Amino acid sequence: MTPFTTLSGRACVLAQDNVDTDQILPARFLRKPRDRAKGQDYAAYLFHDLEVPGVAGASVLIAGANFGCGSSREGAVYALIDAGITCVVAPSFGDIFAANAVRNGLLTVVLADAPMIGGDVWVDLPAQRIGFADQSVRDFAIDPARKHQLVEGLDEIGLTLTHADAITRHARDMPAWLQVAPPTNKSFFASFFSKKEVLS
Amino acid sequence: MAIPLKSLNVSGMMTPRTMFEKIWSTHEILSSPDGTSLLWIDRHLVHEGSFHGFAKLGDRPVSRPDLTFAVADHYVPSHARSLPIGDAEAAGLVAKLAENAARHGITHFGLHDPRQGIVHVTVPEQGLTLPGLTLVCGDSHTSTHGAFGALAFGIGASEVSHVLATQTLWQRRPRNMRIFVSGALGPHVTAKDVILAIIGRIGTAGAVGHVIEYAGPAITSLGMEARMTLCNMSIEAGARAGMVAPDETTFAWLQNRPHAPQGALWEAAMAAWQALPSDDGAVFDTELHLAGDALAPMVTWGTSPQACLPVTGHVPAADTAEIRDQLAYMGLSAGAKLDGIAVDQVFIGSCTNGRLQDLQDAAAVLRGRRAVVPGLVVPGSMAVREAAEALGLDTVFTQAGLTWGMPGCSMCVGTNGDLVAPGARCAATSNRNFVGRQGPGARTHLMSPAMAAAAAVTGRITDVRRLA
Lengths: 200, 468
Description:
Largest sheet of chain B: 5 strands, parallel
Oligomer: heterodimer
Order of helices and strands of chain A: EHEHEHEEEEHHHHH
Number of strands of chain A: 7
Largest interface: A-B, 69 and 88 residues
Distance between the termini of chain B: 58 Å
Largest sheet of chain A: 7 strands, mixed
Number of helices of chain A: 8
Number of strands of chain B: 19
Strand order of the largest sheet of chain B: 5-4-3-6-7
Radius of gyration of chain A: 22 Å
């Protein structure tokens, strides 16, 4: 994953609350392949059915509350990243969107009252500061785990697998009933859905 | 002084714990100093849309294919399946899932499997969803499985890849919310109406960062299918997950399901499940109370599930830009009565309301009546479809003039090509009325199956209590 440390670029504004991931990447594009090595990316699908002035060429999006709510589609993050947006500033984010963002090098900055203006913007993640076109500079809080992952551009799977022994031990100690029982009772549905039971 | 027995939890400590806390602690492998925990995942469900997750896996093997289940649902056609899928891209994704499942030794409920259906309908039916387990899927409506007292939540493609490779997930511990619904629900007031009322009250970000436990007499009196409807839309309130404590209703539903534990394992499971509900005195970070008797059938008027009202209500005044935008998209005038808004079509189905009870509710309204607008009825799984046909429900639907489909996500999200035309208005039992959700320009009104059936019969949003 590409690390995120600092950024200097231009912001665009989407002054709406509850922009769901269906708005960020409409469902009809979810089927599209993405392989940037082959030149296949999601940039053209970003906000396809929505007007977002100045989105082309922007690297920061300043948005309303609960940005990225709804569907878990990680394609919404791919579309932003592929279009060059690596930082979204909003008062709050959908949980799954924020989790997807960090795993793709997209910084989500939670700010209750960011200036809703485009123009020049800079971000310093190690210092947890962001500067806007009105010359205001703001500190922001970020989950330390997410900050670490972004700054280092960590391979999460590789890191987790360094704990393979602990995982194996834990798996071994889980109760047997939590395992998947082999299928039995294949006639179950015929009996379960008999008229008598369903109508009772 | 005697220690009150109920305040003792499983480990004998005095601190009362919530159901969520119990599941979290039994699944926590490691906790890192930065506050995140590595969780063991008991079940991982994948669908055609999980192709990014498989791609990110690269050359790594799937860690626990025995705990991974693949289900074709998002891109499968709703029409007869004797012919190849006409849409090449959709066909490619359905084939890709089969290929990934075969390559990694994952059980696959594919297009022609009798267990095929929407992942959140068919997996519980098979007895794969159990109380007390952790379950994830690259789909936000994974919260459905919390109906059994499981900790179940949606994840993104990178997390899918992580679970495939490690059977674990790094998570920051969410907060815990309890929503207590008192009283009894009135006639034709369903779990769909309860969850819409909750979302209307707290908003689509109302439960962000929280796991919700639904409790109270109006909840415990619900059957499993209704509990799944309720938990399904927890994500629409922003919640990480929704849960209902397992009880006799849960156990009776699970017993003898194909993958449910049997014999001694069933006994061991039952002992664990009975200790699972939140202890008396367990502390929730947030509490919300709702009066179940006061609820009416609900319907959405805008482009977010929080934009909902009792069907007896009126389209709100356009006093904010947000409401103005929603009304413009929906083609509605402020102050109009909801009961009476003309619809162009009806969709009955989805992981929210595509189960047998939902189809029975709709059929009860449609029996002996004709629909005056076109409609699509899509059962949630092959098992639901067969059961509905055994009851003659398919005949009720087709005689009413509606189309009887094959199981899948269908017109809830439209990825299989089942779209609502631009500007057309659809009474839908699905879960999202977002702009463009059912197709570009489509106008969606969310409601219960009985309410959608009533809309089919009158061609208008209709208080089903008048028709019944």
